[in-house]
Design goal:
It is built from 9 helices and 15 strands. The chain has about 290 residues and is α/β, with parallel strands linked by helices. The chain folds into 2 domains: about 200 residues, Rossmann fold; about 70 residues, Hypothetical Protein Ta0175, Chain: A, domain 2 (Alpha-Beta Complex). The strands form 4 sheets. A 5-stranded parallel beta sheet has the order 5-1-13-14-15, with helices on both faces. The chain has a 4-stranded antiparallel beta sheet with strand order 9-10-12-11, covered by helices on one side. A hairpin with a 2-residue loop joins strand 11 and strand 12. It is globular. The chain starts with a strand and ends with a helix.
């Protein structure tokens, strides 16, 4: 039995220095591996133990990094283990195969968004009209698919995200607050749809997933089993589902706990598959 592992990256597997959450004496803190450098400076990390576990997962399963990052942003990351054949960027807008975006997949996504959602320009106009320069740091468009605001969280009004979500929902858009970023993403633009396509192409029997934000909820729900950390948008909302395990750890410790759980689950799945093969062979000889 083959296993597909689709995991969000930022604040699920990898962490910026500000998100590590290692509130312990240096002597007790885990060793870290830098997995992303930007403008000559280290940006994102995993614990070394998480890196070792992830390398094993990547060798023994179909590992699919699944991120809201753009292709350029994803390209800065160097995860341990063999290079994944498949990766999902722009929240499902781009399905990378050996590092190149699949044009047919991207065209299908574009057609769906045009048919079912309000135009991106309409969403951007509303964002720029309602965002207050007092707390807005940047406004950005990702891959010409969705928009996001970089904000000062300490000055962001409590009701802004909720009001934005209520306005965007009827137009076919989802709103998600992740760290300093407020995302406005078309509802059909999902990680789960792209993962389902990879599962179809690879013929995998079981899908495992991990994620921390509202934009990961569909990914977790579509998997046979999923994990979420003790921090993030989903944890803050108390969100869970029958097939989703909420690990209590936060920060980089959560990333390590999630990778360990995935590695153990995938190992058990492979062991059961081997037993079934042996039994089938034995029955055939009887």
């Amino acid at each position: 039995m083959s296993v597909l592992v689709a995991s969000d990256l930022d604040r699920t597997l990898i962490y910026s220095a500000a998100a590590l959450g290692l509130d312990m004496p240096d002597a007790e803190a885990p060793r870290l591996l830098c997995v992303e450098v930007y403008e000559g400076k280290p940006l994102s990390y995993m614990t070394e133990e998480a890196a070792t576990l992830l390398a094993e997962v990547a060798r023994t399963s179909v590992f699919v990094p699944t991120t809201t990052r753009t292709r350029e942003q994803y390209g800065r990351i160097h995860l341990p283990g063999p290079a994944p054949r498949f990766a999902i960027c722009a929240n499902g807008g781009h399905l990378l195969v050996d590092g190149e975006s699949d044009p047919e997949w991207h065209a299908t996504v574009r057609a769906t968004l045009t048919a079912e959602c309000a135009p991106l320009d309409e969403i951007r106009t509303h964002l720029n009209r309602t965002a207050d320069p007092a707390w807005l740091l940047k406004e950005r468009v990702a891959e010409d698919l969705f928009a996001y605001l970089v904000v000062d969280r300490s000055l962001l009004p409590d009701g802004y995200v909720k009001e934005l979500a209520e306005w965007a929902g009827p137009l076919g858009w989802t709103v998600s607050l992740q760290g300093r970023k407020i995302y406005a993403v078309p509802k059909p633009l999902t990680k789960s749809a792209a993962v389902a396509e990879v599962a179809r192409r690879t013929g995998t029997d079981e899908v495992l997933s991990a994620g921390d934000s509202l934009l990961d909820a569909d990914l977790l729900l579509a998997a046979d089993h999923g994990w979420r950390p003790g921090h993030g948008e989903l944890a803050d909302a108390g969100w869970t589902a029958p097939q989703v395990t909420a690990v209590p750890e936060r920060g980089a410790a959560a990333g390590e706990a999630i990778v360990r759980a995935i590695a153990e689950h995938a190992s058990v799945t492979r062991a059961k598959a081997r037993i079934e093969v042996i039994r089938a062979v034995s029955r055939g000889r009887a």
